Fold this protein.
Amino acid sequence: MSLIATGKETHPGAALSDIGGNRQAEKEVAPLLSLRNVSKAYGNGTVAVRNVNLAIREGEIVSFVGPSGCGKSTLFRMIAGLGSPSEGTIDILGRTPEQSRREGGVSYVFQDATLMPWSSVLDNVTLPLKLSGTAKRDRLERADRVLELVGLKDYRKALPRQLSGGMKMRVSIARALISNPKLLLMDEPFGALDEMTRQSLQDELLAIREKDPRMTILFVTHNVFEAVFLSTRIAVMSVRPGRIAKEIEVDVPYPRGHDFRTTPEFGELVRSVGAVLAH
Ligand SMILES: Nc1ncnc2c1ncn2[C@@H]1O[C@H](COP(=O)(O)OP(=O)(O)OP(=O)(O)O)[C@@H](O)[C@H]1O
């Protein structure tokens, strides 16, 4: 009954946990990100999310699943400092989302790779550093590291139109990683890709995370298989106005190989999440 992930200790057989108030546990582990009573009403009166409470620890991968229009992107935009809550507070290690974004602590990956079509892979990836005034030598060194991570080191000079959909998304991920964010927000990043590419990118994302296990990732997906494969915890949202209806722990240690998808444990977790979504 905790707002904080207890996944490392929880057996998936007992994976369903209600949202509740184990405030004692919350005090013991300082979360990287906390949302307290966050609501958002747009100017036209649409209440997108209502009273969201969540605490996320460093190194967690938390997926958000829920019906279309339940406010997942709204929530992510507020966490990224791209919109303010109407009520409640969001805290990222003592900083506001706006401060964290300005300091490079939060990066955002969208479903569309949003690359500059006229610029090379290298220029696209280094753009955030250029905007923050980082010296060229440092930019190039860091680009080498992230392009290596996403397997695109040989494509530095390529233009986006010369890349496949999966490669464009890798560039987008590299661009998000180049500022060494503490928090990586991914809003349906693999939604437009075919299933095989999608699974390879899921594998690669976990491999990247193995190299930097302190990075915290929040992930929006409509795909329950993807959520189970990637996450330490799944936040299931209700219909609009969205709130966290249930949190489901995925107590399966990393590294999770490709074959995790074929285990009975995986199937059971998918079934559990599906059952919550169906209600
Ligand atoms: N700028 C805006 N002004 C008014 N209403 C908005 C605005 N942005 C989003 N909404 C509304 O807020 C609600 C939540 O939208 P949001 O995009 O956050 O949902 P979502 O869960 O990400 O949806 P999907 O899964 O379809 O991407 C929707 O009803 C949407 O129409």
User: Anything to note?
Assistant: Residues 1-23 have pLDDT under 50 and may be disordered.
